[in-house]
Specification:
With 394 residues, the chain is α/β, with parallel strands linked by helices. The protein is globular, with a radius of gyration of 21 Å. The strands form two sheets. A seven-stranded mixed beta sheet has the order 1-7-6-5-4-2-3, with helices on both faces. The chain has 13 helices and twelve strands. The site of pyridoxal-5'-phosphate has 12 residues, from α4.
């Protein structure tokens, strides 16, 4: 069998406007004419007069007064992320989870119901579980037919939250149809867009109300910063700013914001390479006899309708779906580091199988033989050799 890798395997291209925003900054941002924004390592921003301070405080979501609210270095990267998503306003948070928390606390009230569609990032569901203490309920559906989502709505449903593709099994859904479902009924829709990044998925243009990012992943891109972001209309973001962000205090620090801005400069180049090498490695695995299935949304050679490209995070199932095989494979890899998270320059491997949770995984539609890879920038050839060797030992 010819297992040479097709390294020309590129599915989606990148909008030149997005490359400009990543490299040059967003129009209207502070210090956009500079190569990098200065790091405004300041907690306070005094005004010349008391009246001036009061004016600034009356719109703290727009004005840098105190860094728990707004800060110029943070604003510079927020404007870039908003522009990339084609949204009005972005707010950055100290982590992806802080952003999810900001969305839930900013939008929901006692008595509300949240519908989660697709496999959802685990801690987001754990947070939803805790919200039950405040009278906020939720359901999760794995049937991705929009008609199934419609049937699962309740009169109290206030928010539909989804991922495209979903966590671990990377199944894609019809984002525009879900957005329309919410819009028709006055229900907010929100999406965790961390996987595709704003370069390869622009959900606001499909009618979704709110986009969330774990910027710790591809946007930061170097496994050296924890950050999150929300993007939406000025009206929605103002609500989230005052109802959740300003009072929770989960801010992104100026230096971390500066690191995100530096990460953005190489995001288009990195995503092209993650896409090409991710596909090459996925195709190699799909042809391997010890691999039962590969979960990668670009494997069919065409993109699912709403995606503009694919990233380097995907999963595969071992033919022998037991913990010992999963452990042997992971420990047999040399180029893949064994770690949580993803989206950095280094390739990572992990499995949701912890040795004692096989039944729980099957209930969630996840095979116990599932292994997740984050394909970094080592080059597809080196990763393929590593996988080939490690699979021999399984
Ligand atoms: C990592 C991750 C998050 C949470 O981001 P943190 O910065 O770790 O808090 C949310 N969603 C997805 C899909 C993630 O992978």
């Amino acid at each position: 069998m010819d297992r040479r890798i097709d390294t020309s395997a590129e599915l989606g291209g990148i909008d030149p406007d997005d490359i400009r925003i990543c490299l040059d900054g967003a129009e209207g941002a502070p210090h956009v004419e500079d190569v990098t924004p200065p790091i405004a390592q300041a907690a306070i921003f005094p005004r010349r007069t008391f009246r001036g301070l009061l004016d600034a405080l009356s719109a703290e979501h727009r004005n840098a007064v105190y860094t728990r609210g707004q800060n110029p270095t943070v604003e510079a990267v927020e404007r870039q992320i908003a522009a990339l998503e084609r949204g009005e306003v972005c707010k950055c948070f100290g982590s992806g989870m802080a952003a999810i928390h900001g969305a839930f606390f900013g939008l929901l009230e006692a008595g509300d119901h949240v519908l989660f569609v697709n496999q959802i990032y685990g801690p987001a569901l754990q947070l939803a579980q805790h919200l039950e203490r405040f009278g906020i309920t939720h359901d999760v559906i794995l049937d991705l037919d929009p008609a199934a989502a419609e049937r699962a709505l309740r009169p109290s449903t206030r928010l539909i939250w989804f991922e495209n593709p979903g966590t671990m099994t990377f199944r894609t859904l019809d984002v525009a149809a879900l957005a329309a479902l919410g819009r028709d009924r006055g229900i907010w829709t929100a999406i965790d867009n961390s996987w595709a990044t704003p370069l390869f998925h622009k959900p606001l243009t499909l009618g979704v109300d709110l986009v969330m990012h774990a910027a710790s992943k591809y946007i930061g891109g170097h496994s050296d910063v924890i950050a999150g972001a929300l993007v939406g209309s000025a009206e929605l973001m103002e609500r989230i700013f005052y109802h959740a962000f300003l009072l929770a205090g989960g801010i992104l620090h100026p230096f971390d914001a500066w690191l995100l801005g530096r990460g953005l400069k190489t995001l288009p180049t990195r995503m092209r390479q993650h896409q090409a090498d991710g596909l090459a490695v996925a195709r190699f695995l799909a042809s391997h006899p010890k691999v039962a299935r590969v979960h990668h949304p670009g494997l069919g050679g065409t993109l699912p309708p709403d995606l503009l490209g694919t990233s380097g995070l995907f999963a595969f199932e071992l033919e022998s779906a037991d913990f010992a095989s999963v452990e042997r494979l992971i420990d047999g890899l040399e180029r893949f580091r064994i770690a949580v998270s993803w989206g950095g320059t280094e390739s990572l491997v992990i499995s949701p199988n912890r040795g004692d949770n096989g039944d729980a995984l099957r209930q969630q539609g996840i095979s116990p033989g599932l292994v997740r890879l984050s394909v970094g920038l080592e080059g597809a050839e080196a990763l393929r050799w590593d996988l080939e060797r490690a699979l021999e030992g399984v």
